[in-house]
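#lab-general

N.A. 3:47 PM
ok so I finally got the sequence cleaned up, no stray characters, all 298 residues accounted for. can someone with queue access submit it? mine expired

B.Y. 3:52 PM
send it over

N.A. 3:53 PM
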Amino acid sequence: MPALAIRLRSVVKHYGDIKAVDGLDLDVPEGTCVGLLGPNGAGKSTTMKMLTAQAIADSGELEVLGYTLPGQSKQSRAEMGVTPQLDNLDTTLTVEQNLLVFTYLYRLPRSERRPAIERALDIANLADRRHTKVDKLSGGMRRRLLIARALVHRPRLLLLDEPTVGLDPQVRQELWALIDALRNEGTSILMSTHYIEEAERLADTVTIMSKGCAVATGLPRDLVIEHAGREVLEVYGPPARLAEVEASAAGCMLRTRRTGTSVALLGVEGRNGDLPHGERRATTLEDVFVLLTGEEVR
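B.Y. 4:20 PM
back already:
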């Protein structure tokens, strides 16, 4: 059993009357990438803030890299890198100067600063932009710089809060390649996201959050089989027809998912005669996500 880079047990966080995190259990084994998947408002960003002691849990146990939070948060922060959801780069400085500032903040010895900056530039493929001011960079370059900044001190743990939010698909693919390379190097990673494909592509295991708590944890494919089966039957038609299909499926003890102009019947493998006409397809993590967290946008 590998040691845990992150261990949370029964963590609770309130903001007034709102319970942002509600009894969360979460494990991140060392050297793995764990995807924290959930809709907006599920508690992902609050969890990230508690791991960096920007927010203090009301109750529960939090351990990061063997340190107990919040009491030893300073020690844990020194050994982790954080890429925030919101871009907080200094736009008046160049790429290289942004990295240099963080070598001082992380108290790297003078002899290590230049090699650390060169390594971070190489990882993020920004060496040819070292003298460019941040406000002249594209959105994708700025996200790569945020990750490079978090890696400048060779952290044991990397926290990525919605690392590709708002980026176009091509840039997202570039960042996926970067994150995948870090995972393959053995960096422990906790990545919050609401992109299903991102979690499937990068995470060794996934924790799905809804309303502040974990509703499912495991390997993506195992979660698919456990909660939705191997096959889905997609039935298309007008609303009245879809309502009939849903009622019939309920009578057959089948779970359904409404997706606009269709209804997906889950777990239909091995069943034929009692099913309506439709198109069969393999079940996906998206089916599980919607099944467990609901269709409503929050």
